[in-house]
Amino acid sequence: MLQMRPGCECCDRDLPPDSDAARICSFECTFCSHCAEARLAGTCPNCGGELLPRPRRPAAALARYPASTTRVFKPEGCAEASVNTRPGNAA
What we know:
Elements: E1 22-24, E2 30-32, H1 33-39, E3 52-53, H2 59-64
Antiparallel strand pairs: 1-2, 1-3
Pfam families: DUF1272 (PF06906)
Protein name: DUF1272 domain-containing protein
InterPro entries: DUF1272 (IPR010696)
């Protein structure tokens, strides 16, 4: 199940579960659409994966499966999308 992280890792913009501006990679690194496009060129700076629109969780499902409240904010890693730091991934 997706964590639905609440903010952009680059700029800390709020990204509620129903946001159409959230972008994620396969590891669920989360960015706003502006940072994903303008700063990262559609590539995750953490794993090198593709950033795609995050699915929205229906409101009825949020009550049973709430979104994460844990924020990840790493603006120092958002300069370019060439670092591969995920365990298990080859550089």
